[in-house]
Amino acid sequence: MSQRMADALLSFILSLITYAAAVWYDGFEALTELIAAHEEWQIDEILPALLISPLGLLFFAWRRAREVRREVALRTGAEEEARRLAAHDALTGLPNRRRLRQALEQALAGDAPALGQRVALFVIDLDRFKPVNDLHGHPAGDRLLQLVAERLLGLAREQDTVARLGGDEFAMVVWLPIDGAGPVSLAARIVTALQTEFDLGGGTTVVVGASVGAVLAPEDGQDAAQLLRQADIALFRAKQEGRGCFRFFESGMDAQSRERHALQHDLRQAIRSGVIRPYFQPLFELATGRLSGFEVLARWTHPDRGEVPPSTFIAIAEDVGLIVPLTEDILRQACRESLNWAAGPTIAVNLSPIHLSDRALPAMVQGVLDDTGFPAGRLELELTENALIANATQALINIRALKQMGVQLALDDFGTGYSSLSHLRTLPFDKIKIDASFIRSMACHPESRKIVAAVVGLGQSLGLPTVAEGIEDAPQAEALQAMGCNVGQGWLFGRAMPAAEAATIAAQGCPGVQGAAPALAAPA
Q: Which parts of the sequence belong to the EAL domain (predicted)?
């Protein structure tokens, strides 16, 4: 029977049912009047109608039951999909953090030790994921995450769990034999698999690499929350040690993690209270010995810990998102304190990759200059090559805005990052700073000496002054002056000093190196 015929029959039956209901509702007298008005109706007409009515009701009930079943099926499917999405990542289809924890708890509740097995948890973080998004777009980043998921699934067995924890972080829960190097072998295979090139399609290929933190049960504990925290601690250690590697949790790491957490808390308080102070390290012209300017360096004297190394608290500030307020505070203090120094020397402040990716950077710098009255031409901002590659588009916008203010820009740590010549060609830098590692190794590594000479020659050809960092003795200064390097900085000329001492140096005007002979004694 066609759909049209079925609909017609259903309409007819419904009409009969409606009619019958009206008859019974109006009562027997109404039925008598109706029969009288339609005398042509005979028993042979009424009987078929009465016989067909139950069939119509049956057909209607069947159609309604089928619709109810369809609605139930759709609702059940929607509920199942909702439950699946609640436990899985929509992009990769992998279990999410919630489901991973359930899998870990189930594994810990099993009888792995009795079976000669251990439970291993691996937390995996991609090393260079953000540049993929910045340079190739978020669709490319999404495709990369899907390919990472596929590679990790290729390393897992059916009973293992591979999950995406969020962002570019993944995890695996596996059962491995207690005896043997299974966990180490798998961790190494994970690192190797994610170091291999990814083809994102459209001719785009990327290499990202990954760091891995691992923890074992029952050796390191039997609590899922504790194991996840310990794996994160091991992952952080792997990142600290250069990325692209794996580290297993060790008991000492926990104490170090608590120590770091306490230092983070103290750092927040120190920034709010302004106790982190700017120190000033002088720079001198190698040929004349005249003061060229100062580099501003942050120094933190902790009330209980004493002097906290900048390498420690600057790294923490970058990791926990405090580098922007810290830099603004140091810049503001430095501008205010050096505003009225004799001869108006320049001051140079370092910017991190986070600053160049921050669209608010130009407004922050302009706000500091307006508040302190410091001339833009006396401010120099030092940018590393790594900072330029982190978010190339926003970095270029910020650099152009800073140059429009009249701020000077220096390319710091030259030769240690990416695409150095390209940056010099396309970006408006005012000077080049040669990394201290090349200066220190000139005496024992001829290659370093050649690199320094080449950078100095490149600066001369481009009309850019060169600054040598990390000069520690007179022979280094003499060699650099002979090459034609313009400015020197390092312990030979003076360490970073408080503002009052730097003001005295600025007032002297020319206390530095004349013919590479330091007039300032190197501090003890």
A: 260-510
The closest alpha carbon to 144, from 157, 158, 127, 121, belongs to 127
Q: Which tokens in the block code for residue 442? A: 């000139």
Task: Count the neighbouring beta carbons within 10 Å of the beta carbon of residue 298.
Answer: 22
CA distance 384 to 391: 12
Q: CATH 3.30.70.270 in the chain, residues? A: 97-249
Residue 433, pLDDT score: 93
507: three-class secondary structure by DSSP: helix
Higher pLDDT, 249 or 45: 249
Whether CATH 3.30.70.270 fits 97-249: yes
Q: Left (φ > 0), alpha (ψ -120 to 50) or beta: where does 203 sit?
A: left
SS3 (DSSP) at 435? coil
Q: Tokens 């503002």, residue?
A: 499
Name the architecture of domain 282-518. Alpha-Beta Barrel (3.20)
Cβ within 8 Å of residue 5, ≥6 positions away: none
Q: Which residues make up the CATH 3.20.20.450 domain(s) of the chain?
A: 282-518
When the pLDDT of each residue in the chain is averaged and rounded to a whole number, the result is: 82
For residue 375, whether the previous peptide bond is cis, meaning omega lies within 30 degrees of 0, is no
